[in-house]
Predict the structure.
Amino acid sequence: MINACYRYSHISAFFTLILLTLHLSPGHAARPQRFHQASEPIRGLFGAEIGDVVWSGRYLWVSTESGVARLDPAVSSGLNASDWVTYTQLNGLGRGAVSALDASGDTVWVATLIDTTIAGQGTAQAGTGLSFSHDAGRSWSHIPNAFIFDPTKPGFERSPGTTILNGCFDLALDGEAIYAAFFAGSTVRSLDQGQTWQPFIPGGADKIVYFAAETAADSLTILADSLSRENGDPDAIAELRAGADSLTSQEFLHRTFSIVAHGDSVWIGTSSGIAFTLDDGQTWTNAKVRLDETGTPLPGHPAGNWVVAMERMVLPDGSTALWAGTNTTPLPGQTQAISVSRNFGATWAHTGPTFAWDFAFTPNFVWAGTSLGLLASRDPALPVDAGRDWEAIEVADGQPLIGTFVGLERVGDVLWAGAEKGLGRSEDEGGTWRVIRDLVRTRSIDTRDFVGTGGVPDSTALTYVAPNPFAPSRETATLVFSLEREAEVSIAIYDFASRLVRDLIFNEAFAGGADHRVAWDGRDQGGQTVANGTYFYRVQLSTGQLAFGKVVVLD
């Protein structure tokens, strides 16, 4: 899930940009396009970073920074490169990395986005639209953002007139309905397979609120203050203040990141808690962190207001549990945790050492993919008010997978766990693992031959970095290369002006006939974290042979 890389610090910094571009709408909205594939899909799981992992009931779909890969578990295990087929922009997907994915049967929907540079503002993400296939990827149609957010259509008059900061971060398929959670454009819904779209704004507002000043919140606050000075009815004052708080929070409530849809019930994760409706949008409730008069969080509410993941679980007795990854915003009283509800979102309990990017459920465990790694907790049916313990699970098949786990999925007896540098597969609820790593296989630096058997061969590259871009505050970058023969290796990193930033390793011995990985923590020779930007690295063998690569730091 590329939304795992989206950081809250970017959100407030670009609210002004959103307001300035509200009415810069295109003269002609782009139309959906049926794509006739210009090339065959790639045979293999192609990419260096795993994102969402989704089971359609027939196929397993896995997103990467390069596209989306399909596996038929009824035919093959997924442990061999030939088991997978990967679809990219050349096959009809939008430009950029996959930011959201959902699938049902032979139907799959994909959202994509790119990083773009804004003069005077830095780097931001731009949505490149939605793509879908009804025949398991054999043909694709693409819907640009401009078609969905056409300001000439009813309900979209105040749509953002730019793709910047309007990426889609979650998709939910429910029968004929498709829900898409956008950042600037809030949530939208199609009931006819993407031919037409309608706003589905959390809270039931008839237009997107970009700033609190656009609401009547100030008027309600002034009235409440006036009544308070005149010793007015405390209940009326409290009601006015609650109304003002609700209106003020709409600017964050309309920034959406995650969705669960089931019939008339829809739960939407926002940057102001969880907005949910049980009657197809007729009425709404906002579950978020609420404080008492002393500033202490009240019980029964989510742990944090930035809700980056949601999952619905059906328990053995037929009841429903809702699981939410609740990160924090700058507002007080919040805690990074996992929030869970057993009464459709009316009340919430907290558990876990941090928030989750995704969840999966096996007979004996709840699984959470987090920035701390893969976590597991026994007994999914445990009451919400019972103490729940979480255990860090090592996903190892030789060298362990490390870093953030973004995508989790259960398919029958198999649990899939996607991390930034590989995909884990377990048939015994995490007891043992097979790991699919080195998704891209490079030629060896010394002989230009391929070594090993894993991954999709890249005939042009001798080295690569994953993840790329990477954020040193929360992850390390891994430089990957291979050798046919044993050699001493030196790796140096340079900035854009070709100045030495760091000697990463010098004349270290590496074995032949193997792929190798060297970590960079984003620090320079003096131990300081480097600035955002583009850096280059050189891999030099003692025999004089060289390979070069590029890595982008974006924190």
Notes: Helices lie at 9-13, 15-20, 145-148, 217-229, 234-248, 250-253. The CA atoms of residues 179 and 189 lie 5 Å apart. DSSP finds six helices and 41 strands in the chain.
